[in-house]
Design brief:
Granule-bound starch synthase I, Rossmann fold, alpha/beta
């Protein structure tokens, strides 16, 4: 859950200042696709609307399950045309593991191991799937 709630005006895609393209209910399909392309370009993944893009944003701590996620990534990307973007900081061992997964799957996995609020907004707006 979201313990402290969420600022619905800050994360409103119609006016979010961090998005490449703002969108509303009538422009959501095209808006999300354009934000996805912007996200792919920003993190250095091949830009392709057709490839499913999975995003994870969070702390890299045991209770959040990064070890499970890291173990699943090779299984997900080996036979599937999919991209994964991970954003977070935390325990150094998890940060190193994320970077090693990125190195094993260039063009499919990007691990951003720093705090980056604008990127978090772009990931929420551009991802096809959010891993929680």
């Amino acid at each position: 859950g979201i313990i402290n709630g969420m600022d619905v005006s800050e994360w409103d895609p119609t006016k979010d200042k961090f998005l490449a393209v703002n969108y509303d209910i009538t422009t959501a399909l095209e808006g999300k696709a354009l934000n996805k392309e912007a996200l792919q370009a920003e993190v250095g993944l091949p830009v392709d609307r057709k490839v499913p893009l999975v995003a994870f944003i969070g702390r890299l701590e045991e209770q959040k399950g990064p070890d499970v996620m890291i173990a699943a990534i090779p299984e997900i990307v080996k036979d599937e045309d999919v991209q994964i973007v991970l954003l977070g900081t935390g325990k150094k061992k998890f940060e190193r593991l994320l970077k090693s997964v990125e190195e094993k799957f260039p063009g499919k996995v990007r691990a951003v191991v720093r705090f980056n609020a604008p990127l978090a907004h772009q990931m929420m707006a551009g991802a096809d799937v959010l891993a929680v």
